[in-house]
Amino acid sequence: MLSLQNQIVLITGASSGIGAACATVFASAGAKLILAARRQERLQQLANSLVEKYHSTPEQIHLLQLDVRDRFAVESAISSLPPAWSEIDILINNAGLSRGLDKLHQGEFTDWEEMIDTNIKGLLYLTRYVVPGMVSRDRGHVINIGSIAGYQTYPGGNVYCGTKAAVRAISEGLKQDLLGTSVKVSSVDPGMVETEFSEVRFHGNTERANQVYQGVTPLTAADVADVVFFCATRPSHVNINQVILMPVDQASTTLVNRRR
Ligand code: NDP
Ligand code: 8X3
User: Fold this and answer.
1) pLDDT for position 57
2) Which positions make up the signal peptide (predicted)?
3) What atom in ligand 2 is closest to the CA of residue 197?
4) Is 254 among the domain residues?
């Protein structure tokens, strides 16, 4: 198992859910963390809890208030990292969201744009600005958080599923383009995970969000972070290309076992 001690790990979307859980598991292994998201106060709370829990020091956590949709902000954030933080070992492209569950012909343009700009273009920007350094050092690992939605479309999922299918293709393409270097690429693709995801999808409608998980034992963010950690700690000659993980209660995007 590769040691993560003092490895520099950049996690996008670290203010909540899977990203925050990744921060926790990587902090517990002694990694240095760059935590990125728009909600700076949430990042600060997470950093405080990691300092308390794992005795991480301020030298081990660097916060980046960043909207991944803004290409120039991404470029500036990466190019102006202090020297001690600039050699990123692991990039976890996790920031993402769904908006709405409308039929395609009734969909909201702003929802589509937010999903495409975050899930596809944001992921591409981070990759474009971070991976050249990995290539020149001939070491590094990009871990993209895809989804079962990238393999199976469901009614109303149209554009969100399209963005995750794009993530799947981009991960495959990046792996091909990095052949001949030591840089690894993995895609971790979960089914239902209980996070703020559904609340964001339904624009803050908590009641509707709760219905998604009713009668089901979904994955937790920590379950997904475990798999990300597994991918990141394989021996240097091993690349985990794709992992699909689902709750026992879920067989496909639409086939879910709900207890009454
Ligand atoms: P959460 O809503 O809990 O977390 C999403 C994270 O993404 C937040 O930290 C949010 O931070 C960040 N984010 C959203 N937009 C931006 C942006 N423009 N710039 C920077 N950060 C942004 O959901 P999850 O943890 O569930 O989602 C994480 C990833 O997992 C997503 O890519 C999602 O598609 C994927 N996924 C989720 C599943 C689920 O069932 N929950 C299943 C399969 C995949 P902030 O708002 O502070 O910017
Ligand atoms: C999130 C899982 O099935 O809600 O990617 O799209 S799903």
Assistant:
1) 81
2) none
3) 1
4) no
Residue the block writes with tokens 């002694």: 30
| Best probe residue, ligand 2, of 161, 214, 253 (max atoms within 8 Å of C-beta) | 253
> For position 143, which CATH number holds?
3.40.50.720
CA distance 29 to 4: 6
Token pair in block for residue 111: 């929802």
The residues near 83 (Cβ < 8 Å, ≥ 6 apart) are none
Which atom belonging to ligand 2 lies closest to the Cα atom of 147?
Answer: 5
d(CA 167, CA 125): 13
Q: Where are the beta strands (DSSP E) in 18-150?
A: 32-37, 61-65, 90-93, 141-145
Residue 97 CB less than 6 A away from ligand 1? yes
Is residue 122 assigned to a domain? yes
- The predicted-structure confidence for 219-232, as pLDDT tens digits, reads as follows 999 999 999 999 99
Kindly report, residue by residue over 73-116, the tens digit of the pLDDT: 999 999 999 999 999 999 999 999 999 999 999 999 999 999 99
pLDDT (mean) for 202-219: 96
User: What's the mean pLDDT when you consider all of the chain?
Assistant: 97
Does residue 150's CB lie within 6 angstroms of at least one atom of ligand 1?
no
How far, CA to CA in Å, does 90 sit from each of 9, 134, 147?
Answer: 5, 9, 20
The ipTM of this complex is 0.99
User: Pick the catalytic residue: 129, 151, 154, 160?
Assistant: 160
0.90 exceeded by pTM: yes
Domains contained in the chain, number:
1
Is the residue at 251 inside a domain?
no
Of 260, 1, 257, 10, nearest in space to 133 by CA: 10
Domain that holds residue 184: 8-245
